[in-house]
Amino acid sequence: MQEEKKLLPKNIKVFDLNIFGSATTSDLKIIHAAKIMAQYLDNDEDGIVDNKLVHEMLISRNATLLMFNNESEAEAAWMSGEYNFSNNSQLLFDDETIPSFNSNAPNRRFDASLEEVLHLITHEGYSYVYPDLKEVKGSSIAKAMDEARGGYFQTPPSQYPSNAWYSYDDITCTYDCMIVEYFYWALTSILGAQSYPGRINEIGHEWKLNTKEKVENLDTLIFTLMTNLDFNLPKVLPDNDYKGFEIKLEN
């Protein structure tokens, strides 16, 4: 905790989960990320987390969002060797955080906070609470992903089968990482984040089911998981207008 505060002096707590930001990360962007986190965890915005089991797991694993101005700043901090980045942290950069993002209109750039904050919550929370969502071969979400990719691949193949609708090709992304990304694509598509004009042209090489209707009709396995009430996953896409309580930087 002290290392994070030294490197990243700006701080917000959301339901006792820390968001740390560097001195060069804008206050507005940190507050925006905090609102996105709050809305994912408290989707009905009543000031209380919707899934206590997931929240407790996130707390126990010290899940933390670390914000830098850009990737270069984060790499410089890492390469300096002065700081230990927690394995239970997720990075988000100022230059990819877009508070003006509107899922119902054309956008110059997607708001990465919708992705990176969700990664933190699913990877450190849901995957540890629910066996069906565990990031291992044989779990329900893994079986759904294998079907979406056209087969089981421990690492990305040089070419995916022509019938695959999920074809992430980052060779540094291991099988569990592939599940994290698949979870994100499926849930945010169901919530309406990926269907604005022009978006499919940006993501189609990696993910083809960019609307709720496409997921429901073509990937029934993941749609059933994402809408399973037992998991109490978000049903509304965060919109940077959290009403549960005031969110501001700590002094």
Structure description:
The chain is of the alpha/beta class and 251 residues long. It has two domains: 1-114 and 243-251, no CATH class; 131-230, no CATH class. Helix content is 40%, strand content 8%. It has helices at residues 2-7, 27-41, 52-60, 71-79, 113-129, 140-148, 175-191, 199-203, 212-218, 220-226, and strands spanning 10-14, 17-21, 64-68, 89-93. The chain has a four-stranded mixed β-sheet with strand order 1-2-3-4. The chain is globular, with a radius of gyration of 18 Å.
Write the layout of secondary structure elements.
Blueprint: H1 2-7, E1 10-14, E2 17-21, H2 27-41, H3 52-60, E3 64-68, H4 71-79, E4 89-93, H5 113-129, H6 140-148, H7 175-191, H8 199-203, H9 212-218, H10 220-226
Parallel strand pairs: 2-3, 3-4
Antiparallel strand pairs: 1-2
Helix pairs in contact: 2-5, 3-5, 5-7, 6-10, 7-9, 9-10
Uncertain ranges:
none
User: Which radius of gyration do the C-alpha atoms yield?
Assistant: 18 Å
Distance between the termini: 16 Å
Helix share, percent: 40-55%
In short:
The chain is α/β, with parallel strands linked by helices and 251 residues long.
Descriptive labels:
2 domains, alpha/beta, 251 residues, 4-stranded mixed sheet
